[in-house]
Design goal:
Number of strands: 6
Number of helices: 10
Helix content: 40-55%
Strand content: 25-35%
Radius of gyration: 36 Å
Distance between the termini: 63 Å
Oligomer: single chain
Structural class: alpha/beta
Length: 373
């Protein structure tokens, strides 16, 4: 058992050395550097790792230093320049921190500590995004506010709470958001008694699911939040032409047959083919339903129509049951499904309306995404 454990350990050590060497040979120097550190943590005297680690660091650091030269020589003042500088110093500092924290020792080798440069790069990146965000916010338009929010959020990620970034970020978000109020949701049930309360909740939930990633927020007109809200758009929804058919019942029958092999009772290993048949008596029960929803989106200031369309839906409920006479061996799986089908209680209007509204919601979501993308 001990010999097996030693063998497995040896295989693991050999595999790790080969993997580290492969990374280095493929030119993935930063990965080879971290792999060599892991090898040395397991086996401090690993000759291959001791050799690869300083060489991998040299190559990886050289690449990041070259990236820094290119980024610093960019004449533009775009925020991407400071992001690139930050990312390069972050990668260099990560190699240093990993080596120091690992506690490994390699003769005549010590990576450079870039903490001072990294801290400055962090500050520069935060300042660049903050200043860009403030400039965009001063344009006083929704498109600028959205870009401002993204930049201020980046500044806050570099240095949490940088200057007044939290307040400015909220200001940009409020200016970037388009507030949409569902001002009307009319469900015309006619003489049907239907509980449609769920539909309004579903509409708002689905709309906000779409809007959350696209700077749109949707409200119910009765929501107390709308009292002091800057309303940018209104949505009107009308559900009408709601119809449910009477239960239609259709009785019918059909005969099926099948040829099957049968063993002979008189002669061993002998079979013959016979034809068996059965008659299925089926009952089909059907309920049809339909509805239509109109929607219209208008600009709150100009009253111009942004989008308007009609969404129809149809739903058919069906129950198929039956019994048979004759030889069961003639029945197919389809026939058995009819025979075994239990009688389903006919759905009420509430259930049928849910199916119709589900269809309408699917189509409505698809169309509304093109408006609020």
């Amino acid at each position: 058992m001990k010999n097996l454990s030693r063998l497995l350990l040896l295989i693991t050590l050999i595999s790790s050395c080969v993997s580290t060497q492969k990374l280095f040979d493929k030119g993935e120097y930063d990965k080879a550097f971290y792999a060599a550190i892991n090898d040395l943590k397991k086996k401090p005297a690993d000759a291959n790792a001791l050799k690869i680690l300083p060489e991998a660091y040299k190559e990886a650091a050289s690449k990041y230093e070259q990236d820094l030269i290119i980024a610093k020589n960019r004449s533009d003042k775009k925020t991407e320049k400071w992001d690139q500088i930050y990312n390069s110093y972050q990668s260099l500092q990560k190699m240093y921190d990993t080596y120091v924290n690992a506690g490994v020792q390699v003769n005549s080798f010590s990576p450079k500590n870039y903490s001072t440069e990294f801290d400055q790069a962090t500050s520069d990146a935060a300042a660049a995004h903050y200043n860009r965000g403030i400039t965009l916010l001063q344009r006083n338009n929704r498109a600028g506010a959205r870009k401002a929010y993204d930049n201020l959020k980046m500044a806050d990620s570099y240095i949490p709470g940088y200057k007044d970034v939290i307040a400015k970020k909220q200001e940009a978000y409020d200016a970037a958001i388009t507030n949409v109020v569902v001002s009307k949701l009319d469900q015309r049930f006619g003489y049907y008694s239907i509980n449609g309360d769920f539909f309004e909740r579903d509409i708002l939930w689905n709309l906000n699911t779409i809007g959350n990633t696209n700077y749109y927020k949707f409200y119910d007109a009765n929501d107390s939040q709308t009292q002091d809200l800057r309303v940018d758009q209104y949505i009107e929804l009308n559900m009408y032409n709601i119809w449910f058919s009477n239960l239609a019942t259709n009785n019918y029958s059909y005969t099926v047959s099948k040829k099957i092999p049968v063993k002979s009772d008189k002669m061993a290993n002998s079979t013959s083919v016979i034809t068996v048949s059965a008659t299925i008596q089926a009952t089909r029960r059907v309920l049809n339903s339909s509805a239509v929803m109109d929607y219209r989106i208008t600009d709150a200031v100009s009253q111009k129509i942004i989008a308007a369309d009609q969404v129809p839906a149809q739903y058919t409920w069906e129950s198929l049951t039956g019994k048979y006479t004759g030889d069961s061996r003639a029945l197919s799986e389809k026939d058995w499904a009819i025979i075994r089908g239990g009688f389903n209680n006919r759905p009420g209007h509430d259930e049928l309306y849910r199916e119709l509204s589900r269809q309408i919601m699917t189509q409505f979501n698809f169309r509304i995404r093109s408006v609020y993308r």
